[in-house]
Each structure stands twice: as structure tokens, then as C-alpha cells.
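Ops channel
N.P.: pipeline sanity check, posting one input/output pair.
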């Protein structure tokens, strides 16, 4: 009986962790969206790059948390967003930074939706 209680308790704890990880993925996707959108609306290359850098860090967290809760759609969007945000960060012109930032914030929006559906 004691082993059964331990097993049930473990399942309960592990399932709660998965749920929490998907919530964290959703929150990080929102933060990535916010920063990528700020990069897209930036008026200088340095400002665009600064926000893009913040966005790709959030996208990295999206990937981590989404993989922890087995949310493959959010992982995929997180990866694509990370790639585009990093390209924005490495851009040499404001127009290319904004172009990649626009793609990144779309991926962030999709990642947020995907993470929410995994909850």
C-alpha cells in the first residue's frame, strides 16, 4: 500500500510539472513576442538589435520549457523564432533587422498558441 501511494504521488507531481512547463513556455513565448515586436518597431539599428537579443533569449526558454512538457508545436515555433530573432540581432541594416524581427514575432505568437493548447 505504501508503494502504491508513493507511485500515485509521483505521478501527480510529475504531471503537475509538465503542466507548469507548458505554462512557462507560453509565458516565455509572450515575452519573445513582446520583444520581437519592439525590435520590429525600433527606429534605430542598435535598438532593434537590443530587443532582438532579448527575444532570442526568450525563444531559447520557449524551446526548453516546451520540450519539457512534450509540446512539439511550441518547440518547433520556438526554434524558428530563435533563428529569426538571432538573424535580426546579427543584421547589418535596420531594414533587415526589422524584417527578421517581424518573422520572429509571428513565430512567438504561434508558439504561444501551441503552448496554450498543450496545457
Amino acid at each position: 500500500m505504501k508503494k502504491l501511494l508513493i507511485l500515485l504521488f509521483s505521478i501527480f507531481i510529475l504531471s503537475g510539472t509538465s503542466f507548469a512547463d507548458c505554462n512557462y513556455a507560453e509565458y516565455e513565448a509572450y515575452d519573445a513576442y513582446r520583444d520581437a515586436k519592439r525590435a520590429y518597431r525600433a527606429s534605430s539599428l542598435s535598438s532593434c538589435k537590443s530587443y532582438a537579443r532579448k527575444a532570442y533569449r526568450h525563444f531559447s526558454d520557449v524551446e526548453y520549457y516546451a520540450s519539457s512538457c512534450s509540446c512539439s508545436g511550441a518547440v518547433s515555433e520556438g526554434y524558428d523564432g530563435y533563428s529569426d530573432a538571432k538573424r535580426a540581432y546579427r543584421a547589418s541594416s535596420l531594414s533587415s533587422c526589422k524584417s527578421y524581427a517581424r518573422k520572429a514575432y509571428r513565430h512567438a505568437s504561434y508558439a504561444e498558441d501551441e503552448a496554450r493548447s498543450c496545457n
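N.P.: looks fine end to end. Residues 84 and 100 are 5 Å apart (CA to CA).
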